[in-house]
Design goal:
CATH topology of the largest domain: Dihydrodipicolinate Reductase, domain 2
Structural class: alpha/beta
Largest sheet: 9 strands, mixed
Strand order of the largest sheet: 16-15-14-13-7-12-11-8-17
Oligomer: single chain
Helix content: 25-40%
Number of helices: 11
Number of domains: 2
Amino acid sequence: MTATHGSRKADRPKAKKAFGIGMLGYSFMGKAHSNAYVRMPFFFDPPPAIPRLVTICGRSRQKVREAAERYGYPRYETDWRKVVADPEVDVVDNGLPNDMHAAPCIEAAERGKSILCEKPLARNAKESETMLRAVTKAGVKNMVFYNYRFVPAIHLFRQLVAEGAVGKVRQFRAAYLQDWIVDPNFPLTWRFRKSSSGSGALGDIGSHVIDLGRFLVGEIESTCALTKTFMHERPIPGTSKKGRVDVDDAFISMVKFKGGAMGSIEASRVAAGRKNHARIEVHGSEGSLYFDLERLNELQLYSLRDPADRRGFRIISVTERMHPFMSNWWPPGHSIGWEHAMVNQVYHFFDALANDKKVEPWGATFHDGHRVDVILDAMLKSVRTERWESTS
């Protein structure tokens, strides 16, 4: 009897090569990114290339050693320079705090390494501009982890807008709400210091929906914003003292798009009851599209082209094999989760890397990351001037 199910097909194409991964950071994003590297070849068959885990880096020797064992890295370091200089590392993944994005990425570019970096790209536009210049001069592949671009429903969202499903876009609305710092006794970490983070909710989660505004609608040309810090002090870890918070807890903004659309963008890390709530809505001359991150397998469409007696938001279950990326996952109707967008993103980057394809427009390059930083700076300037500010 000839085995069919479970046997390897003799003519199945193989991945072209392997690229060594040097991971900077071992906590939340280090885990999420590492998971994506491990899972990508499992689901994308054949993968364009194999991510080979080489080494992982972090400040705590004990914690990074434990992370290396758990995630599958054969080596670990406490000095990022050793990772970047490692000849076995082809791709540097920077998941360090925001103030540690620039130096490792610039050195990696100078060494000819491909680079993936967490968002926001830098603490401000001046800093991200130096990173953009470095990767441009070196000619290396680069991408920012604006991973929501790779949620299949968001991918479909962009396709529908581009195809004119809602007509000419008139309005964009976005809100990203969390509550993980609603407790005033939550400790003072690097995310609450401007020197290490650049901004608070604005750059942390607001940058995601700013990027999606650019991705779905187009370039933002000006903005007017308001930020608020509700708790100005937080406990310093390991002490009985409190330290000053000098970044925002929440922000609200208005934006104007170059194409003529208007928009509102907001984010909060103190929205009680909201754990990871991001909603994106576009209104056009012929209809509307709506996405909710907490229901990330669904996209809602309202069309004025439908007969008047049949109009209403209809839910598209973005799980069919013809939908973006879904042929690599489960049978239709079977949902995917938050982490799978990063797997899709890693696939896209490795396809660009192995086959010399462009990362843009579907992936966010350092150019996109820099543009988001320019918009973030303009919003912070608007808070000070209480006026509309240009993002040019």
